[in-house]
Structures are given as structure tokens and as C-alpha cells.
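Duplicate of earlier report; SRPBCC family protein input re-posted below.
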Amino acid sequence: MNITSPKTTVNKSAQELFDLLTDVKNFERLMPDSISKFEVLEEGKFIFALKGMPEITLQLKEMQAPNKIVLGAAGDKLPFTLTADINEIAENKSEAQLTFEGDFNPMMAMMIKGPITSFIGTLSEKMGQL
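Output:
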């Protein structure tokens, strides 16, 4: 399953946005209002839960400054990645796009596609407000 957010313009340079997103505690600012838990477990790793959804642990898997950040599931139960692609479009302006990729059976994919699409959209929208 592959879900891509719309491109979002952020009033920060690509390096500033990259630095902000590689400090995982900043993801709390991007979370939907329905968040019921957010906790940094260690550097580069955090756990969160949305109301009515199971807890998800994400950790930094790959970083290519200042253009790409890959977060992945810390467990094997739901294997997926969340990638932020960042492109500088002006001195203090960049464009970001989020891509969710997961390997799920068809039943699971059908159940989570709506909530994940909404979640990715909220992250993207709040990133534009940074």
C-alpha cells in the first residue's frame, strides 16, 4: 500500500525543515488533535497513539540531509515506512511531500487506508503551518 500526501509549502529552508523533522520530539506538533499518547522513547524513536487506534512506534531509519528522512515501524507487526521528501524552492521556503509505504494483507489495507490517508494529510497540513 502506498499513500502520498499533497506537496506542502513550508516557510523554512530545506535544512531547517530537515533539522526539525530529525528531532522526533517535534512530531508531537504535527500530530492530529485525536492524539491520545506521544512519548519520545530515545533519540530518534517515539511512540504515539490516536484515539481508537493501536500504539505505533516509529524510529529514524535513514537521513539524507537536507532532502530525505525515512521513519519506519520499530516492530515487525505492521511493517511500513513514512518518508519525507524535502526540496528547497527559495531561500527560506521549501516543499515537502510525505509517502507512506506498507506491506499489508488486503483486509488490513482496506481497514487502515482511510485513517492512514487522513493521518498523512494532517501531518502534511500541520507541516505547512510550521
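The chain has two helices and eight strands.

Merging into the original ticket.
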